[in-house]
Write a structure and sequence with these properties.
globular; six-stranded parallel β-sheet; alpha/beta; 15% strand
Amino acid sequence: MAILRKLPVLLSLASALHALASPTFFKSTADDENDTPLPVVIWHGLGDTFSAEGLQSVGALVEKINPGTLVYYVRLDESPSNDRTATFYGNVTEQLAKVCDDLASHPILSTAPAIDAVGFSQGGQFLRGYVERCNFPPVRTLVTFGSQHNGIVDYKACSAADWLCKGAMALLHGNTWSSWLQSRLVPAQYFRDPADLDNYLEHSNFLADINNERTVKNETYAKNIASLENFVMYLFDDDTTVIPKETGWFDEVNGTEVTPLRARPIYTEDWIGLKALDRKGGLKFKTTPGAHMRLTDEVLEETFGEFFGPFKKISKDEEEIGEL
């Protein structure tokens, strides 16, 4: 049954207590026999909170597929209400810096040889920003569902009674490129109109930087993305919330013209390491039926089973090669 995932949730108390009680939870990156699953970090999307009930079920599926997994839910405030507000209002660069500090100082995550990460909607490009800018602890596999990697030109995300959301969207369509808005309205910081790239490149507070679209490139961004084992990007077939939906695959949509990622300079000139990652088989393009954030347990379980688990897990491709 399709379940609308409203993301994310509290760290599993049982998992946390077990981990904290085990000083050898992770032995070392050289220990090939350690079958402890890597921790999984989840970042929720616009209008959600770390304590959302739907995200708890996502975390439960992670633990079901790979028992013993430590699941950590990104939060920008310990108050669920404030955490939800922070999905609309705040400086994404500052928010990301806080998450980098939180993960690097976590007693368990910071000792793991790597972590896996899953981002829902805008949480996906924010986790990609984490990989590019910080990456400690390092991410092995990044999975994103319906994310806005190439930005948005619109966002139809508000319910009739959600005035917080409606206020944010009204601002988004106002003075998008003002420094005030670019440092305070979260969706504005990944707004990108192909018909107005000059303003985007000059004023974007977040996306233009992590996509390395400006003249001066940050080589660390490309190095860190290329270091991933897998970058799995899911697109929702019937997504009408994120406009354009193809942004989940870095495609450029300009009117009716769609330029796929592999035909764009961000890939051909390898601005952020996607081409290098693709060359080693780590860039995955996937689709799932339904509208934005309409996910089945089957899709989630298959994804968590294929890409998450122990540090030295044998990949599906390696298993198929071994059977030849």
